[in-house]
Each structure stands twice: as C-alpha cells, then as structure tokens.
Amino acid sequence: MGVATYIRLARAGYVLAREGAFSLAEGQPIPPSARLLVGLARLIEKRDVRKTGRVTRLANALTRLGPVYVKLGQVLATRRDVIGFEVASDLATLQDALPPFDAKLVPGLLAEALGPNADRLTDISPPLAAASIAQVHKAVLQTPSGPKTVAIKLLRPGIKERFASDLDGLYALAGVAERFLPSAKRFNGRMVVDALARSAQLEMDLRMEAAAISELGENLKDDTGFEVPDVYWEQTGRSVLTTSWIEAIPVRDTDRLDAAGIDRPKLALTLIRSFLLQAIRDGYFHADMHPGNLFADPATGGIIAVDFGIMGRIGKREQRFLAEILYGFITRDYRRVAERHIDIGYVPDTHTIDDFAQAIRAIGEPLVGRGADEISMARVLAQLIEVTELFDMRARPELVLLQKNMVLVEGTARILDPQFNMWTAAEPVVTQWVTRAIGPQGKLDLAREAVDEAVDLVKRVPALARRAEVVLTRIEADQIRQTRRDPLIETLKWGTLATMGLAIIALVINIAGAL
C-alpha cells in the first residue's frame, strides 16, 4: 500500500471526525486505547454537527468521502450485529446521491462509448439524477419507427480509478479493525470489501446492468404488478445504458399516488410478494429497492423498477433456507428454523437443536398478538443474527444483499401503507413455496438435482482417473530409480485405486437410488 493510500485514509479519518461520526462509539465496548483515540478525534468535531443526529452525521461524512464510502455505508446497513439496529436501519436509507458532473462532457462521452450509434440520441436533457457511479439523462432516440423517449445512464469520468484507490484503503481499514475489535472478526471485513469490489466492477460495466434487466424481465414475464424497462442494446456499451423512459409516479410521493387513485396498500402487497418471488422462486432479485428506484404506473397500478446496478443472487440451498426460515416464524415452528440453520451449516452441529430453538422462540413469541405496525420482518432477521452469534454463526456474504434489501423493501412498503404487515403479505408466497418443496414435485426436483450432480461427477471421473494415473506413474518411476520399492508407496498406490473404485460404486448406487 503506497503513501497516497495512507494520505487518503488520513483524509477519511479527518472527515469522519469533523462530521462527528466517532460519536457512534459512545457507550460501545471498545479497548481503552481505541477509546482514547475516539476522544481525541471528537476534539475536532464541528460544533454545529452536535445539533443533528448521530446517524445523520455519519451519513454526511460518508457522502463527503465519495462513492466507495457511500457504498460501504449501504453495506454496513446490513450488519446490525456489528453496528446496532438503530444505526443500521437509518443507514439503510442512505441515498446514493452526489452532485452531477459537467453536462458539457456528455456528447463526447456518448461518442466515445457508442461511436456512430450515438448520433441517434438527440435532445439530451441536463442530468435528472446523479449517483456515486453514474448519472441519468432524458433523451430522444431516433428509430425507423419514429422517435422514442429514452433514459440514458452514463458512468462518471474517472470513476474506475477512484474506486480502485479507495478500495486499497478499505482493505487496510478492515485489517486494522479485525486486529483491534473482536466484534469485527465476525463481520468478515475483508470479505465484505471483496464483495464491494466485485459489486463495483459489475456496476461499472453498464452492459452487465443491461443483462440484469433482461434476465429479471425474463423471470417476471408471466407475473403481474412488477415491470422493468426495455433495453436498447445498440445504444448500450460499457459506460452507457439506454432504456425506455418510465412515465410513472415515485412511490415516495404518496399525495400524487392518492390523486391518481392508486391503491397504496395493494401496491405495498405487490412489492413485497414480487420481491419474495424473485428471491425464493428465482434466486435472482433487485437488491436496491429503496423508494428512489421504485415507481407506480398509473395505467396498471403496478410497480416499475429502475437502477439494476445492484442485483442479488442466491443458490437453491439459500432459497430453501430463506423460505423455510420465514415459514418457521409464520407457523411458530421454531425447531424447524433451528434445524435449517444447522442443516445448511450456518450453525455448527456442536450446538443442540433444542438450545438453538429455545433462543429462536425468544425472538418469535413476542410477535404474537402485536399490531401490524409493530411487527418487522427486518427486525426479526436482525435479532436472529444477534442470537446466532451466541451459536458461533459467522457472517454469510451470500445473504448480505438479501438482508439489506429486506430492510429497504419493508421500509418502502410502510411508506405506502403505515399499517402494512410484512408477515401477512409473505405468508401465501412462502407457504406455497414450502408446500411445493416438501410435496411430490419438490422431492422430484431434489432427485433431479441429485442426478444432475451425480452425472456431472461421473463425467469428471475419467479426468480424475487420468490425473491419478499420472501421479502414480511418477511415484512408481521415482521408486524404480531408487532400485527398490518402498512398501509405503505400494500401499498408497493400491489404496488410492481401491478408494476410487469404491467411490465409483457408491456413485452408481446413489444414482440408482435417486432414480
């Protein structure tokens, strides 16, 4: 790490101190040396920031520090087990908004990215929205069938270099935090920065976002109530994304929704159920469902989403886990929740299911009989994370975006309907999925997956055998050169061959059983 990185880190520390972000450490169990440093940092805190909330000061500091730190704040919003529920909930509303870059640069950037195809984009507006990585303009696309109004998303100039330099600093901070703060070890700071880096790489290639829109649209083509824009591929490149323009009402503008006669409780229900279908059924979901990215279509009364730079993907195992966890809380089957945590390997089997189920019951039972406005799925999942810490469960990077989006989507639903009950909304989707999963069709799907895995393994057996033969031949040749054979080597050779034979026999038996 070069001198420039340390300078940037020093600047970050100064900005955080001036904006009062270190006030978050008040009352926290930190080492005496760290407490002394926090006290010194607060000496340079602005006087006026004491008039604002602690989380507001942190949000201000992250915004001032730029794109990487804004993204970091959004990631931190998913880790209530580290920064606390109140701070994380407020950080979940951190909007990715920064001042736009000079509009005079736009024509040159479009020509560089699209070549001759840029000439078909006319009447480009000033920037309508600006985030840490890109900004959006309205334009007209000249097509053979006539002009079409489109949205153009453009990367900020120099954003890749800025991200790369700031990420170096975050890796250094993660290492320091894990060394001096015990709770940070569970946070898996380096893994979080890894995820942030991967996410940034995808976000900074707008062709990937175009592909995300296409895939999500394909998944939802038979659903109603949740739509995505169309992509114009000829006007899309690494640094430019062109989509159809959305004429709709922001979901946060409740007065306009009411004036348009849109049923807000129904809209909230549609939003939650679509998100759950994306996550549980498809394993691929829009992972940034804050109010600024969601609009209501007055014509259909449904949701139209924008900004697909952050998408979440979970595997079949995590899809089942999520569905069964939610189902367990809905049906008050806490043992089922405990069993799924241990089955998937999230909680070591050194802990008993009964003890873990008792801890989960302590989360679920207080919800019984409470009003809709008091029941939060996001809060329950946060409490579940806190409890699992007692049972040696480490952070699961594959669920980070899912946890974050659960907070965002529930918050958005409550904007639309303050009395919205997440659990009631989720029950039909979750119950239908679980019923199917444990029924004949679900068992058939599991058998099919087992067969596919077995067939894939069988295909790889010849290659594995060839590699084993090469290794054994080399071992044997070495021994021949030594003029006598070592009994240990002979045992190893024949033991390896015997093990491979038994593995192939077991594989055939498993395939037969699955069929």
From TrEMBL:
Species per Swiss-Prot/TrEMBL record: Pelagibacterium luteolum
Residues covered by the ABC1 atypical kinase-like domain: 94-340
This protein's UniProt keywords: ATP-binding, Cell inner membrane, Cell membrane, Kinase, Membrane, Nucleotide-binding, Transferase, Transmembrane, Transmembrane helix, Ubiquinone biosynthesis
Keyword check for Cell inner membrane: yes
Keyword Transferase: yes
NCBIfam families tied to this protein: UbiB
Protein's UniProt name: 2-octaprenylphenol hydroxylase
The protein's annotated pathway: Cofactor biosynthesis; ubiquinone biosynthesis [regulation]
